[in-house]
Amino acid sequence: MQITTKHVLTVLHVLAWIIFIGLALQAGIIIVNAILLFVVSPANHDKLWSEIDLRSLFNYNKSYFISHVTAIIIVALAKALIFYFIIKISNDKRLSLAKPFGEPGRKIMQLVAYFSLIIGLFAGGAAKHNEWLIEKGVQMPSAALQHIDGADVWIFMGIVVFVLAKIFKRGAEIQSEHELTI
Known about the structure:
Structural class: mainly alpha
Helix content: over 70%
Distance between the termini: 38 Å
Number of strands: 0
Shape: elongated
Order of helices and strands: HHHHH
Number of helices: 5
Strand content: under 5%
């Protein structure tokens, strides 16, 4: 049996769903965990999700805690949204592989580019904030554990996808001009 483009796209669609569900769960867990830290006393917080333990930050300064967790949540939600857009484009019936330079593909590529840049900016800010808090003596988990590392990669990816979206836009214009001349 030969592996066709359709088979590869089906596998990628399933992988996108798995990754989306995982990222959405992660974002939801972070949100619930942050809210419960305010509701449940920090002493009892160890019974909750402990992958990202920010109790020392919560005890140090609640404003810093809120701003830091907000940045982590924005990064997590933006990652989930990127995979939602990938799922959306693969389900879009207007998308044709015969005419790939259509408007739906370009719009989703632009959204992926914007959200990649948002991830890069917020992850970079949160990572710098994390370093600053560590310098202040607050016990903080690593940026990798908080999933806010690699901001430069996200910014690079956002720029590359944005350029590709512009190329797709130009391809759509050329495709439209070609259809008019036939």
